[in-house]
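Justification of computing resources. Each target in the renewal requires a structure prediction run like the one illustrated here; the chain below, 241 residues long, is used simply to show the kind of job we budget for.
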Amino acid sequence: MIDLGKWNAARPIASIALAAVFCIVPAPAQEAQSTAIIARIDAIARERYEHVLGFTDIENYAIYRGNDEVHPAASMTVKTTYKKGEGKSYAILSESGSGLLLRFGLHPLLDNEKAINVPGNVEKSWFTSANYEMKLRPGVAQRIDGRDCLAVAMSPRRKAPNMIDGTLWVDATDNTIVEIEGVASKDPSLFSGTTHMMRQYSNIDGYAMSKHARAESNSVIFGRTVVTIDYGDYHIELGKK
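Resulting C-alpha cells:
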C-alpha cells in the first residue's frame, strides 16, 4: 500500500526533478529575455539604416541544376552600389552560361533587389518585429563562424517571396545578425516549388553585411535548382553616430 503522507511530501521534490529534466525555465524570465533581444534586433536594424550612407561590393551569382553544385549552368559577376535614400544599382561585370537562365533567372534577381531597396520598400524587408512575429527559442544555441549564436523563431506578418519563415541566428554577445534560414513564405512562381533559403552575414565596420546566400527549389517541371550569391570587396561609407 502507498503511504499517502510520504507521497504528498515527495510531490514537490518530484516536480522539481521533472522541471530539471525538461529544462523548464520560469516563463517571465524567458519572456523578458526574448523581449530584450528582439528590441535590440530592431534597434540594430534602424541604426544600420541610419548610419550606413552607402557601400559598394562585388557579388558573384551562380545557378546550378540537378545534383551538380560544382559547374554552374549560368553565372554572373556584378558590382553593386547602394546609396541611402536612393536604393541599389547594379553594373554587370561578366556573365556566362545559359542565356535562358541568365535572362529569366539571374537578371530578375537584380530587378527584385532594386525593387526591394527602393526607399519606402526597404523597411518592409528588414528582419524586425514590425515585419515578423519573433520569439527567442530558449535553450537553442549554435556556434557559427566562431560566434556563439542564439536562435530567434521568425514568422512573416505578410507573405512574399523574400520573406522567410524560419530561424534568425544572432550573436549571443551583441545580437547582430549572423545567419537566417528557412523557407520563402510565398513561392516565387507557380513552377518553382517550395524555396529553401539561407543567408550568412559578416560583421564589417560594426554592421552585419551579406556574405553568402543560397536558395534551393525543387519542382516537377524544372527539377532541383540552386542559386548562390557570394558577396565581397565591401567599401562602406558611414555617417556620424
